[in-house]
Amino acid sequence: MEKNYFDLTERVALITGCSSGLGVQMAKALASQGCNIVAVARRKNLIDEVAKEIAEKYKVKAIGVTCDITSTENVENAVDIVMQKFGRIDILINNAGTGSGATVAENVEDSQFEGEVAIDLTGSFKMARAVAKKAMIPATYGRIINIASMYGLVGNNIAPAVAYHAAKGGVVNLTRALASEWGNKGITVNAICPGYFETPLTKETLDSEFFQQYARTMIPMQRYGKEGELDSAAIFLSSPASTYVNGVILPVDGGYTAM
């Protein structure tokens, strides 16, 4: 009998920022492999809709849990709810994030910079800390995937975003630090660095003729990422197939960071 290297049957995945966009796409990808899903975000109506759709379509268990990942209390409570419901969290995808807008560095306000870091970096750490402490370390098993960005690896001169770059660069090295600390506890910690993908947050910018010309010039594949093209990376890093993959920073960017 052939082995299914990507079988996630009865695993439980907690995915932050799972009310729209890439978070929902990755949740559906994991559910397609049999994984139970916990959709986490601030807007209850949206995560409840996501959970309902996933449960009906993929015949897995799925729930929505509201959480503001900048709040330690919220994060701890959310993890407690999942543990009470499922008794385990096998996979954490730290996908929640924000974009602070195109503001040149010299005009960035303190609140703008600090807000970006609080969500993208500190929030990811708070969630990883709680999940590892309450679920993964006791189980001596876990898969943590931090969603960083190609902008966590390089700078750019088309869309000023110094706060975003700083926060996502922090996520990249947070990944390495946690991978180093928790690798001997049965937990792997890796990061995916997406390139340009269309989401509700990016659609208007990516649709502009200016940005499309930029993509044709700067992306070797001369296009943006399509819906579903992040899924295989998320499935692989969540699965038993990635047992010895730890501390890896994986760009999924059409070759942008190769230039």
Order of helices and strands: EHEHEHEHEHEHHHE
CATH class: Alpha Beta
CATH architecture: 3-Layer(aba) Sandwich
Question: Which strand order spans the largest sheet, edge to edge or round the barrel?
Answer: 3-2-1-4-5-6-7
Helix content: 40-55%
Q: Unreliable stretches, pLDDT < 50, 5 or more residues?
A: none
Number of strands: 7
Largest sheet, in brief, is: 7 strands, parallel
Question: How many helical elements?
Answer: 8
Radius of gyration: 18 Å
Rounded to the nearest angstrom, the distance between the terminal CA atoms is 43 Å
* Count of individual domains: 1
The CATH superfamily title: NAD(P)-binding Rossmann-like Domain
Mean pLDDT across all amino acids? 95
Portion in beta strands: 5-15%
Write down the CATH topology. Answer: Rossmann fold
Secondary-structure-derived class: alpha/beta
Which shape, going by the Cα principal axes?
globular
Describe this structure in words.
The protein has 259 residues and is of the alpha/beta class. It has a single domain (12-250), classed as Rossmann fold. It contains eight helices and seven strands. A seven-stranded parallel sheet has the order 3-2-1-4-5-6-7, sandwiched between helices. Helix 2 (44-58) links the parallel strand 2 and strand 3 (62-66). Helix 1 runs parallel beside helix 2 (44-58), helix 1 (21-31) crosses helix 8 (231-238) and helix 3 packs parallel to helix 4. The chain is globular.
SSE blueprint:
Blueprint: E1 12-16, H1 21-31, E2 36-41, H2 44-58, E3 62-66, H3 72-86, E4 91-94, H4 110-139, E5 142-147, H5 162-182, E6 187-194, H6 203-206, H7 209-218, H8 231-238, E7 249-252
Parallel strand pairs: 1-2, 1-4, 2-3, 4-5, 5-6, 6-7
Organism: Butyrivibrio hungatei
Protein name: Gluconate 5-dehydrogenase
GO biological process, one term: fatty acid biosynthetic process
